[in-house]
Design brief:
The chain has about 425 residues and is an alpha/beta fold. The chain has two domains: about 5-60 and about 330-425, Aspartate Aminotransferase, domain 1 (Alpha-Beta Complex); about 75-330, Type I PLP-dependent aspartate aminotransferase-like (Major domain) (Aspartate Aminotransferase, domain 2, 3-Layer(aba) Sandwich), CATH 3.40.640.10. It has 13 helices and 16 strands. It has a seven-stranded mixed sheet with strand order 4-12-11-10-7-5-6, with helices on both faces. β5, α6 (about 150-155) and β6 (about 175) form a beta-alpha-beta unit. α5 packs across α9. The longest helix is centred in the N-terminal third of the chain and has 18 residues, at about 110-130. The protein starts with 5 loop residues before the first helix and ends in an 8-residue tail after the last helix. The structure holds pyridoxal-5'-phosphate. Pyridoxal-5'-phosphate (PLP) binds near residues 111, 112, 116, 247 and 273. Pathway: Cofactor biosynthesis; biotin biosynthesis; 7,8-diaminononanoate from 8-amino-7-oxononanoate (SAM route): step 1/1. One of its GO terms (biological process) is biotin biosynthetic process. Pfam families: Aminotran_3 (PF00202). Catalyzes the transfer of the alpha-amino group from S-adenosyl-L-methionine (SAM) to 7-keto-8-aminopelargonic acid (KAPA) to form 7,8-diaminopelargonic acid (DAPA). It is the only aminotransferase known to utilize SAM as an amino donor. Homodimer.
């Protein structure tokens, strides 16, 4: 194999949230199998990230591979306007079997951010059809809903630097994020700020959008199911739609198929993405009820006004359907339980390090919050030397390994974190 031109990569290719002035080195990957990432250097890393919540079944999975190659020999893509195909139908049938029965209509989109855009547009069109002007959304601080403009406008204003885009970004309403942790006794006043915002502004609010139970990229916060129950009640009381963004939490990650199940609530609109294709390619979906869909389509536009070029891409649908088949076997349940048990047994001990502010976990999500932010290049190099792939951000070192991770894999991941916590040089002081 030719030597990779890493200078070219550094000088010309943008990676997520990176600088062209002082780019950090990236680690070149040659291939990945199961939960192992093989670097070009020959080093093998145990994956702690599932490539950002996506590769839940691990890499290079035989069933997923054959779903792609079989579909490839039929067609990789045809337009979805006026045409349809078995991969889309099969996928949407499986999806509807998994979600709450009130959700009946599926919009296939290209990425998580687009699924959020679609959800917001659905809510706006819903109220437009009903002859009401409701231009605003209510969401939670520390949320994350994506990087496109509408998604960013409902993402935490500080984390997504709203001030950079002032004048262009619509201004929505932010309630205090939930303070009661998942395992703590419920504090009823936790919902007060949300409730008062809804009381004051409900006539102008099209929908509430939030990440159920786990706020991901905006702070890895894991909150009490009661909060979500109260949100559902208040949305009903004030006649506001509820959008659940399960792009990170969907498909078993929190120990339930969907995080909303922890609170036994059903949203009016549901966004899924990330793990939908088992991490094979980009695909997302926005699902809604018959009532919302029919209201949207009975308005001035007579249809839902969105239609991406690569909508319903057959390759992506085929692999997503195969991924959902793997989920249907139910193996994820014991796997995620075993990971949760391992986290519950081993993460609390990390509290002994002065560096650590908090540890928390739920399902196959483990979070170590430190007092000081990490030095990215240094800690990344540390993890690679330890034979693991963990990518922290800010003051958060977190794990969301593929479901097939064994106790030995998890022990190695946590040991690598423990060793990092013993080295102040890996953190800003
Ligand atoms: C990742 C994420 C998104 C955005 O998905 P992309 O595929 O990166 O556009 C939206 N919402 C949540 C909760 C996410 O975790």
């Amino acid at each position: 194999m030719n030597k990779l031109d890493l200078d070219f990569d550094r000088n010309h290719i943008w990676h997520p949230y990176t600088s062209t002035i002082s780019p950090l080195n990236c680690y070149p990957v040659s291939h990945a199998v199961g939960n192992q990432i093989h670097l070009e250097s020959g080093e093998v890393l145990i994956d702690g990230m599932s490539s950002w919540w996506a590769a839940i079944h691990g890499y290079n999975h035989p069933r997923l591979n054959s779903a792609v190659t079989e579909q490839l020999s039929r067609m990789s893509h045809v337009m979805f306007g006026g045409l349809t195909h078995q991969p889309a139908i099969g996928l949407c049938q499986k999806l509807l079997q998994m979600v709450p029965p009130s959700l009946q209509h599926v919009f296939l989109a290209d990425s998580g951010s687009v699924a959020v855009e679609v959800a917001l547009k659905m809510a706006l069109q819903y109220w437009h059809s009903r002859g009401e002007s409701r231009p605003r959304f209510l969401t939670l601080r520390h949320g994350y809903h994506g990087d496109t403009f509408a998604a960013m406008s409902v993402t935490d204003p500080d984390n997504s630097m709203h001030r950079l885009y002032r004048g262009f970004l619509p201004e929505h309403l932010f309630a205090e994020s939930p303070q009661t942790g998942f395992y703590e006794p419920w504090h009823p006043q936790d919902i007060d700020d949300f409730q008062s915002q809804l009381e004051q502004h409900h006539h102008t609010i099209a929908a509430v959008i939030l990440e159920p139970i786990v706020q991901g990229a905006g702070g890895m916060r894991i909150y009490h199911p009661r909060y979500l129950q109260e949100v559902r009640k208040l949305c009903d009381q004030f006649n506001v739609l509820l959008i659940a963004d399960e792009i990170a939490t969907g498909f078993g990650r929190t120990g339930k198929l969907f995080a909303c199940e922890h609170a036994q609530i059903e949203p009016d609109i549901l966004c899924v993405g990330k793990a939908l294709t088992g991490g094979y390619m980009t695909l997302s979906a926005t699902l809604t009820t018959r009532h919302v869909a029919q209201t949207v389509c009975s308005g001035e536009a007579q249809c839902f006004m969105h239609g991406p070029t690569f909508m319903g891409n057959p390759l992506a649908c085929a692999v997503a359907e195969a991924s959902l088949s793997l989920i249907e076997t139910g193996d994820w349940q014991t796997q995620v339980q075993q990971i949760e048990h391992f986290f519950a047994t081993h993460l609390p001990a990390l509290q002994q390090y002065g560096m650590v502010k908090d540890v928390r976990w739920l399902g196959a999500i483990g979070v170590i919050e430190t007092h000081q932010p990490v030095r990215m290049a240094e800690i990344q190099a540390h993890f690679v030397r330890q034979g693991v792939w963990i990518r922290p951000f800010g003051r958060l070192i977190y794990l969301m390994p593929p479901y097939l991770s064994t106790d030995d894999d998890l022990a190695q991941l946590i040991q690598a974190i423990e060793r990092a916590l013993q080295q102040p040089a890996l953190f800003f002081q």
